[in-house]
Amino acid sequence: MPIAVYVLGLAVFAQGTSEFMLSGLVSGIAADLDVPLSAAGLLTSAFAVGMVVGAPLMALSSRSWPRRRALLLFLAVFVAVHVVGALTPSYGVLLATRFVGALANAGFWAVALTTAVSMVPDRLKGRAAAVVVGGVTIACVVGVPAGAVLGERWGWRSAFWAVAIVSLPAVLAVLRSIPGGRGTDTGGAPVPVRDELRALTGPRLRPVLLTMALVQGATFCTFSYLEPLLTRETGLGAGWVPVSLALFGAGSFAGVTVAGRFADARPVAVVATGMTALALGWAALALAAGRPALALALIPLLGMLAFGTGTALITRVLGLASGAPTLAGAFSTTAFNLGATVGSWAGGLALDAGFGYRAPVWVSALLMVLALLVAATTAKGRRSRAGERRPSAVQRSARGRL
Predict the structure, then answer these.
(1) What is the pLDDT of residue 397?
(2) pLDDT at 257
(3) Residue-level pLDDT at 270
(4) pLDDT tens sequence across 57-94
(5) CA-to-CA dists, residue 227 to 24, 242, 243, 244, 283, angstroms
(6) What separation in angstroms does the CA of 223 have from each of 105, 147, 197, 291, 361?
(7) CA distances (Å), origin 42, targets 198, 296, 375
(8) Contacts (Cβ under 8 Å, ≥6 apart) of 359
(9) What is the CA 207 to chain-centroid distance, rounded?
(10) Residue 129: CB partners within 8 Å, gap ≥ 6?
(11) What pLDDT was estimated at residue 402?
């Protein structure tokens, strides 16, 4: 595996830390800037919206640039907005930096995914995608808890400074290790945007992108409300929350690693097995939430299944989207983050409706059932179309007589 692929994973680690670290910083931000907790929570929403909108926009705007230039520009903007965020006394400015930082993060993700898979042979493409996605899982294990500790000891601004500092080695590494070719990796003119969009909105890719969004929606529906589930339903103390988050992140890292090794050879089998296990796993967690030992055992398993299946789906999209070398990574990023945004929103609706703290977990199970239905319907449609194209025995006999 080229060292450049691991460099991209390092940069994604820093950016993933920034994306998720606010879950442990909102109280400090609200108190320091004299805003309600709900306003501090909007900082997370602003980042999510920026990721969804930014992935295709940033990929389109940078599609004719050398990939190294695009990655460096996105990283530089990401570092700059975190410095501004760490210094500003204004909530409005901080909100703007979260949105702009998400745009840069989305652009980096889109270019990084396509760059990583273009640098390796076909048999290693899944593993390369897993290394990039693995940066997010390591952020869950190390970066997010570390950000919470920094915020508790030295204030929330120290976490923003830390993200900026951790990103600097990635800037230097990208400068030294990433080739300077265009995102298309052909050395010629980029594929026309119309052709890329046609490839990405075709009947083969639409269901895969929808399935990816549903899987991520299920993941973040529960992940966003894991703290109240554990402390108010399972009966664990607040000290178990970071431990549980680290367990989920460790499982996620294991899932990404395993999926990266098997997704290239049997992507459909990995996705189908992972989705079925997730539907059962979320239902099991909802039923077992009142038993601490069983709930803690299920959390890393579900992290492994969720991110392993997500990685296999990303590999599937990149493999099917050969006609969209620039936008394939962008659409994968958008589907990933759109699912995360909608999943968190759906979990919140279930809680507000008074269905209890297990409700988001049941919603996760329901979203996985929907994902399985989409996959099954798509597979049935493909078999039907294949049967229509295949000549019947009578037709083959008639042709033989002719």
Answers:
(1) 55
(2) 80
(3) 87
(4) 887 777 777 888 888 999 999 999 999 999 999 999 99
(5) 11, 9, 11, 9, 18
(6) 21, 17, 32, 18, 9
(7) 35, 29, 33
(8) 347, 350, 351, 353
(9) 17
(10) 113, 116, 117, 260, 263, 311, 314, 315, 318
(11) 44
The answer to whether 345 and 363 are in contact (CB under 8 A) is no
How far is residue 127 from each of residues 101, 132, 261, 332, 365, measured CA to CA in Å? Answer: 27, 9, 6, 16, 28
Coil, strand or helix: which one is 181? coil
- Distance between alpha carbon 343 and the CA centroid of its chain, in Å? 12
β-sheet bridge partners, residue 182: 66
| pTM score | 0.75
Token couple for 372: 């399985």
| 293 Cα distance to chain centroid | 28
Q: State CA 2 to chain mean position distance.
A: 23
- Measured between alpha carbons, how far is 27 from 212 in angstroms, rounded to an integer? 32
Residues of the chain short of pLDDT 70, as ranges, are 23-24, 37-38, 140-141, 144, 180-191, 199, 264, 322, 325-326, 381-402
Is 88 in contact with 169 (CB distance < 8 Å)?
Answer: no
Tokens 């990103």, residue? Answer: 167
Closest CA to 27 of 151, 161, 150: 151
Residue 364 is which amino acid? S
Residue 332 near residue 317, CB atoms below 8 Å: yes
Structure tokens belonging to residue 301: 């398993």
b (16+ CB within 10 A) / e for 118-152: bbbeeebbbbbbbbbbbbbbbbbbbbbbbbbebbe
Beta strands in 20-158 (DSSP E): none
> Which structure tokens are listed for 58?
């940033």
What are the tokens at 40? Answer: 């501090």
Dig out the tokens for 188 from the structure.
Answer: 């010629």
For residues 352 and 262, give the distance between their C-alpha atoms in angstroms, rounded to a whole number.
Answer: 40
Residue 53: both structure tokens together = 């909108």
> Residue 391 is which amino acid?
P
Which residue reads 């099917």 in tokens? 320
- Which among 97, 107, 129 is positioned nearest to 263, based on CA atoms? 129
CA–centroid distance for 21 within its chain: 15
